[in-house]
Design goal:
mainly alpha, globular, 76% helix
């Protein structure tokens, strides 16, 4: 029977879902970056301290990233449209509170609550759109929504800076209030969806542990020299795994981390998102500090990279699920080359050309991390999968900024060499995994054990060589103590630690398969013996009934 083609058009409910998700993610991404350049204005207006002011941005991102796994599961349990509407309502109310905040502590508190609303919007909205669209059309619709979010990511800092200096920093929050209201009205016309196999209760211990893990991990990646956050993330992570194994209705099904396409796309998406954050920092810094451009001029010139990043979402929606991993590797490799060219380019034209190419490649990679992961998991638990993916991408966003040596003393120019190297190493790992057929696609036949071992040895050797070359290239103890060296080496060590876990799991799975095969062989041999005994009894019974006295029957 021929396979039916997906309907070329979206029904009205799917269109309303696309409208509400696109507007909602635009609000979330706009408020994530709109105050970056306006923080000095906010500090002067509210007479705040230098230590509290950065929490206007950090508190929002930390709350949004750490609560996304819980928010995704809440959508699966109680309805994605309901959670999306609740998130939009909380986001709009807290935006009003931010605009009316009379002091800096109250503004930080309102921003944390606004981040909680953003955490409900993102995973619930993506899962709602996945279910509202017919199979084969959801990826393209999600790509359009993510393209609008990418445009907000790039234009947010410049829009916030212009509004803060020409009107008021409070105008940034008043801008998002009507958008959140319009998105909530559109959500009322979308179809509701939830996980029919889910229970009616939330795994409380798993929710608290998951939030703590993401929060500690994000703080450690922002402050690489503080190992206390890393220890806290490890301890809470062990508690989370234990709680999920014992729970009858876990917050996150641990089988999700055995889905190799999902893990590969999520990890690569985190790398692409970190490199995008680094690009968004370095290029405006270069235009304003090195070229002497104003904020408005730099924002107008940066329209081309912004458009390229926004187009990446719709392009990612057109990639087939089976080709997501190879395309992700190609995008990361292209992005690495463009990032290196951005650093070494001379002149404004060369800088903007390389930045536009890098933004296009990284935009497609970031979009694939969300559209591809939704295509390789069960639709019933789409909210859970999108929550975990967005949490990982948000928590690791600060790594890209640390790799550029941002904030280093001496007024040194930030560089994109290390983000480019990380993108290239990730692309190489994906290529090796695809070539060795490490079961990165659903239904792919398992390869022999020696080939799997050889593939892991090659990946570990690649990582070890890159770490050795990097460490030897550090010329002084001061460079060894730099934040980017600590972040880069620790990331490599973390990958080295996690790689054997997969090999041990494969050996255990192979042992179980071998035991099941041997048991089936024994059962087959026993059944054949029983069949022979039964056949012999039948022949003897026939001979006695016929009173046969021949030698053959005797």
């Amino acid at each position: 029977m021929p396979k039916s083609e997906p309907h070329p058009y979206l029904d009205p409910q799917a269109r309303w879902a696309l409208a509400t998700v696109a507007t909602g993610v635009f609000c979330v991404q706009l408020d994530s970056f709109a105050l970056n350049l306006a923080l000095p204005v906010v500090r002067d207006a509210l007479h705040g301290s230098a230590t509290v002011t950065p929490w206007v941005v950090s508190g929002y991102l930390l709350a949004a990233g750490s609560l996304m796994p819980v928010a995704g599961r809440l959508g699966d349990l109680y309805g994605r449209r309901r959670m999306l509407t609740a998130g939009l309502a909380l986001f709009g109310v807290t935006a009003v509170l931010c605009a009316l905040a009379p002091s800096l502590p109250l503004l930080v508190t309102a921003r944390i609550l606004q981040g909680a609303g953003g955490a409900l919007i993102m995973p619930a909205g993506l899962a709602l759109l996945t279910h509202a669209c017919p199979p084969g059309r959801g990826r393209r619709a999600m790509g359009r929504a993510l393209g609008l979010a990418g445009l907000a990511t790039v234009c947010g800092p410049f829009l916030g800076g212009v509004l803060a200096r020409s009107v008021s920093w409070r105008a940034v929050f008043w801008l998002t209030v009507p958008l959140a209201l319009a998105s909530a009205l559109c959500a009322r016309r979308a179809a509701e969806s939830r996980d029919p196999e889910a229970g009616q209760s939330l795994d409380g211990v798993g929710a608290i542990a998951a939030t703590g893990v993401v929060a500690c991990l994000a703080r450690w990646l922002e402050h690489a020299a503080d190992w206390g956050w890393a220890v806290g993330a490890a301890l809470i992570g062990a508690l989370f795994v234990r709680a999920e194994r014992r729970s009858s209705a876990p917050l996150v099904d641990l089988a999700l981390f055995r889905n190799r396409p999902y893990v590969a796309l999520t990890a690569a998406g985190a790398v692409a998102n970190s490199a995008t954050v680094a690009l968004l920092y370095v290029v405006p810094w270069t235009l304003q500090r090195a070229e002497g451009w104003s904020v408005l001029e730099a924002g107008m010139v940066f329209v081309a990279p912004a458009g390229a990043l926004a187009v990446g979402g719709p392009l990612a929606g057109r990639v087939r699920p089976g080709a997501a991993v190879p395309v992700m590797a190609l995008c990361l490799a292209s992005g690495a080359v463009a990032l290196a060219a951005t650093t070494r380019g001379t002149g404004t034209l060369a800088l903007l050309t390389a930045a536009t190419a890098a933004a296009a490649a990284l935009g497609v990679a970031g979009g694939l991390a969300l559209t591809g992961t939704q295509a390789v998991v069960r639709r019933e638990r789409a909210g859970e999968a999108s929550g975990v993916t967005k949490a990982v991408m948000t928590a690791t966003a600060g790594v890209g900024l640390a790799l550029t040596d941002a904030g280093a003393g001496g007024g040194a120019r930030p560089s994109l060499v290390l983000p480019a190297a990380v993108c290239l190493a990730t692309a190489a790992a994906l290529v090796v995994a695809c070539v060795l057929r490490l079961r990165l696609a659903p239904g792919l036949v398992s390869v022999p054990g020696p080939v799997l071992v050889l593939g892991r040895v090659l990946i570990r050797a690649l990582i070890s060589v890159r770490a050795l070359v990097y460490v030897r290239s550090l010329a002084s103890a001061r460079a060894l103590a730099s934040a980017r060296a600590l972040v880069y080496v620790r990331a490599l060590l973390l990958v080295r630690i996690l790689l054997p876990v997969g090999s041990r799991a494969d050996r255990r799975r192979a042992d179980r398969c071998g035991a099941d095969r041997r048991g089936a062989d024994r059962r087959g041999a026993g059944q054949r013996q029983a069949d022979r005994r039964q056949a012999a009894q039948c022949r003897s019974a026939r001979c006695r009934s016929a009173r046969c006295r021949t030698d053959r029957c005797e």
